[in-house]
Amino acid sequence: MSGFRLLLKQHTPLLLTGVTPRLDRLLQEACSRLHQDWSRLHDLPLAWDAEQGFFRASQVIFGITAEHGLEARELGLPASVGCLGLGEAADPPRRVALNGSPTSPRLSRHKAYLAPYLLFYGEGDGQACAELLELLDGLGREYARAAGAFSVLEVSADASGQWGLRPWPSSADARRVPFEPVADHLSLAPRGESVGVLRPPRLIRERVA
Amino acid sequence: MNSAHGLFFQATSLIREVHPPTLEAPPTPLCAVCGRPFEETETPGSAYPYRYGGGMATEYLCLACATPRIAAPRVLGVERLAGGNPEAPVGAKLGMLPGSGGLITPAGELHLALPAGFVRKFADGLLAARGQVHQCSSLALLLHFHRDGRLGPLAEGFVFIEQFGRKADRLMAGLRLSRGLEEVWFNSDEGARPVDVAALIASAHWLIEHDLAGRAQKPAFWRALTLASKGARSERALATFAEALGGVEAAQALIDRLPVDPHDRVDIVRYMRAIIPILEAEVGA
C-alpha cells in the first residue's frame, strides 16, 4: 500500500454534485458496474484508515497550468423531454441558441467547470484504482450526457499525503487536517451515515507542471 | 441542528397559520418536490395535494415545499386584482416573486428583500408590520444583517434566497443551508450554487483601500479577468489589467483575494456593484 497520484485529462466540462466527487465513492460505483451488483459495498484497492473511519482517497482536484486556469462553462441541457411534435421531429433545429429561440426557455443552464487536468491522490494500489476509474463515463452530474468526461493519463507514486484533501470527522485532531476546514454534514465512506465533518472547499486547484 | 427545509418551515409558520392549507394523508411515501419521506418531514402523515390543472395528476408535497404555493394576501400582500376586479384580489405567494430574495436567520426569522413595487404591495401585510420586509437586493440584505450581527451564530445555519423567482418546485427541491460566508448557497428557482461571499468582501475591501472602488464597478475594469475565466485568455489584456492595478504584485494581491470559482469571477462586476457601496457607507459612517 503506497501513496499515489492519478493524473487525468479533463475532456468536457464537469458539473459538481452536492458533495464534491471523491475517489472512494467513484470506485465504489465503478466496482458496482464491474460486478453488476449495487446491493453491497465492494473491496476497494485503497488503504482504510481505521482511526478516522474512511478510505485514504482525496476528492477531485482541478489541475491548472500557466496557460489555462479553471474555467467557467455553461451547459444547456433539457430538464425534461416532452414529446416532439411531428414537425419538430421531422425537421429538427440545426443550431440551438442558449439565448432567445423557442428552445432556450426549455433548457436548464448548468454552471460547469473545465480545467486542463483532474487529479486524485490516494494510498493503495494506484494502477488498480486507475483501471477501475476508467469504467466510469464521467465525473459529476449528467455523466450520461457527456459531462465530466476524462481519461487517465498517468499513475505515479506520491508521498505528499495529499490524499488528506477530503472530509475528516469533526472529532479529528485539527492539526492533522491539511486544509482550512468548512463544517458540513455528510458521509465519510461510501454508504456511510451522514456525520459532522470538516471538509476542504469544493474547488481545489493545483498547478500541474 | 438546522436543516434547510426545517428552517424554511419554521420561518414561514405565520403564512400557514393565517392562511391554513387543506391537507390530506399522503398516498405516496415521498414529497414530490424535495424527495424527503413524509415521516421525516416537519408534519408526518400530512401532505399538501397539488394539481397543476384539470386532467393532471395530483402531486403530494410536504408542508415546507407547499408553502411557496400558498396565496397569502394578509401575511404578504395582494399581488394583483384578477381581471382588474376589486372583488377578486390575488394573494401574493413566496413562489411567485421575481426579482425578490430573502434571508432566513438561524433563529428562523424570514426577511424579504424586495424591489420597490413589491414593497408597496406588501406594505399592509403582517410581515411588513413586523419589520421583516426590506427594500434592497438580497445580497445587500445578507451583508447588512451580517454587519449588524443579526445573522449569528452562522454555524447553526441560515438560508439565503438569492431569488424566489417563479419556479417554486426548483427553488424548494434544491434548497440548501449555509454555515459560513466562505460558502453561501445562493438558492433560486434555477437551483442552488455556492458563492464565496467572504472572498468578495475581502476583495471589495482591498479595492476600496487602493482607491479603485469606482473603477471596480465598471465591466471594462474586469474584462481581462472575466474573459480568462470563460476560457478566452489574453496575456496582453491581463498585462494591461496588472498595469491598471499598479503592477504584477498588486494584481496578484487582488487575484489571491478573489473567489476561486470562475463563475463568481464572471459575475464579479454585479457583486462589486452590490457590495462596494455598502462597505463604503460603513467606512464613511
Walk me through what this model shows.
The complex is a heterodimer of chains A (209) and B (285). With 209 residues, chain A is mainly β. Chain A is built from three helices and twelve strands; from the N terminus they run E-H-E-E-E-E-H-E-E-H-E-E-E-E-E. In chain A, the strands form four sheets. Chain A has a five-stranded mixed sheet, covered by helices on one side. In chain A, strands 9-11-10 form a three-stranded antiparallel sheet, with no helix packed on it. Chain A is globular. The mean pLDDT of chain A is 89. Chain B has 285 residues and is α+β, with helices and mostly antiparallel strands. Helices cover 39% and strands 14% of the residues of chain B. Chain B has 13 helices and ten strands. Chain B has helices at 4-11, 13-18, 63-66, 116-121, 126-129, 138-147, 168-173, 197-209, 219-229, 235-245, 248-257, 262-266, 268-284, and strands at residues 48-51, 58-61, 78-81, 89-91, 101-104, 110-113, 133-134, 159-163, 184-188, 191-195. In chain B, strand 1 and strand 2 form a beta hairpin. In chain B, helix 8 (197-209) crosses helix 13 and helix 9 packs across helix 10. The longest helix of chain B is centred in the last third of the chain and has 17 residues, at 268-284. Chain B is elongated and about 65 Å long. The model of chain B has no long low-confidence stretch (mean pLDDT 92).
> Could you tell me the mean pLDDT of chain B?
92
Helix and strand succession of chain B?
HHEEHEEEEHHEHEHEEHHHHHH
How does the overall form of chain B come out from the CA principal axes? elongated
Strand order, sheet with most strands of chain A: 8-1-7-4-12
Oligomeric composition of the shown chains: heterodimer
Low-confidence segments of chain A, given as residue ranges, are none
State the end-to-end CA separation of chain B. Answer: 37 Å
Protein structure class of chain B: alpha+beta
DSSP strand tally of chain B: 10
Beta-strand percent range of chain B: 5-15%
Shape type of chain A: globular
Q: Count of DSSP helices of chain A? A: 3
